[in-house]
Amino acid sequence: MIIIASDKALPPNNTSASTDSWYESSARQRVENLLDANSFNEFIGPELRETSPHLPLFDLPEQFDDGMIVGYGRLDGIPVLVAAQEGRFMGGAFGEIHGAKLTGLLRAARDIAWLPVLILFDTGGVRLQEANAGELAIAEIMRALIEARFAGIPVVGLVGGRAGCYGGGGLIAGCCSALAVSEQGRISVSGPEVIETNRGLEEFDSKDRALVWRTMGGKHRRLIGGAEVFADDTVASFRDAARFLIKHAPSMSLEMLEAEQFRLTQRIEQFGTCADAADIWRSLGATKPQSIPALPHPDFVALANDLQEPHYVAR
Amino acid sequence: METLNYRANAPQRAKGSKRQVIVGVVASGNLEVLAERVLPDSECEVDIRTAAEGFGEVWQAVVADFVERRSPGGLKFSINDGGARPDTVALRLAQAVSAIEGERT
Q1: Contact call for residues A80 and A73 (beta carbons, < 8 A)
Q2: Which of B21, B27, B36 sits opposite A5 (nearest CB)?
Q3: Are A65 and B78 in contact (CB under 8 A)?
Q4: Looking at the DSSP assignment, which residues form a beta bridge with residue A69?
Q5: Is residue A157 a contact partner of residue A119, using CB atoms and an 8 Å limit?
Q6: Which residues are modified to O-(phosphoribosyl dephospho-coenzyme A)serine (chain B) (predicted)?
Q7: Which are the contacts of A296, defined by CB distance < 8 A and separation ≥ 6?
Q8: pLDDT at A17
Q9: Is residue A52 exposed (0-12), middle (13-18) or buried (19+ Cβ within 10 Å)?
Q10: Domain boundaries, chain A
Q11: How would CATH label the architecture of A15-252?
């Protein structure tokens, strides 16, 4: 068993851990503080040194866990499988080993068939140095995730890290049973710089941070049904969200897929002509859409519940 | 990438019974330190892979200072370095010892 040290000062009894910022925490801190004390057992820990076979070819430093922590633990007593990405190592990007660890965890979840899975996303997408292996990893993860869901396993994504959840990570998040996202979390496929590079400044100004958060941030994702729970930026809030979503995750079935298709068709009909996220919020019935980005967590949760009930039946 | 290895005698065994800890992250100006209790009580070793080449003397000085201050007998430190400054390296090494000795870090 591996013993995990956190990165910053904690009081002896660890009582402040729950109020720690999710955004500021490392992947190991998130895992340790999210789960019940001393309940986490890591699979393929850093001492095994399963590092990327590709990075040395580019003369780049490796990390002993390749930026992906996987293991088993308990969440308020419930046994769970957990995967967490370290967003500060190569932007949390997927490479061969990084991806294989998550694929293996999801296949284990499928085979064991009673342990829910939590994925703590913090990723910019696929590691460019491992492009083909990384893209393959995304495909394998999505297949394994869907297979786990068909086996009846809830797979819950938590998004609130500094790298957000982009590229292949956004695709995997879209496959999850349910998602919780914080204000700081962003979910998309193409990132702001990618859109600007490919479509021009007129299409998307990546330096306009308000635009980025308004378009890809947690509040917008919650309002358009892209995430089920809007979490506060604390470990405690993400723990509550995870426990709730494990319980309420929809099962995978043809009916669910048809319901999701219907929801998305309706969404594009309702909002397809909107030029900005604020237009969508207005269309949803928000009387002061310009005030939404500055709303504190509880006020926004109340507003979001008022504007649109979360869609637990379809994802 | 440059690989460096330092071995030293340590007058005292590192306290506690934890077998291993890991601290830090491999990012620009940062490093990770994996500490493992795998050596005889009177020895320690620091194994380094760094992206910043040509700083062997600085590493040697930081490691010598660290061993003198903390006497981490029995510990092997494996470092992946993303170009951290010497003060950051010293702090991470101290953090790793505190963690494996059971102090909150």
Answers
A1: yes
A2: B21
A3: no
A4: A84
A5: yes
A6: 28
A7: none
A8: 73
A9: buried
A10: 15-252
A11: Alpha-Beta Complex (3.90)
ipTM: 0.94
Q: How many CB atoms lie within 10 A of CB B102?
A: 13
B105 in any annotated domain: no
Query: Rounded CA gap, A68 and A93, in Å?
Result: 9
* Segments forming the whole domain that contains residue B67: 2-100
Evaluate whether residue B74 is within a structural domain.
yes
Q: What is the 3-state secondary structure (H, E, C) of B34-94?
A: EEEECCCCCEEEEEEEECCCCCHHHHHHHHHHHHHHHCCECEEEEEEECCCCHHHHHHHHH
Cα gap A261→A268, rounded to integer Å: 11
Q: Which of A3, A56, A86 sits opposite B21 (nearest CB)?
A: A3
Minimal Cα–Cα distance from B59 to chain A, Å? 17
Which of residues 49 through 68 in chain A touch B, CB cutoff 8 A? 49, 56, 59-65
Pair A180, A227: CB distance under 8 Å: yes
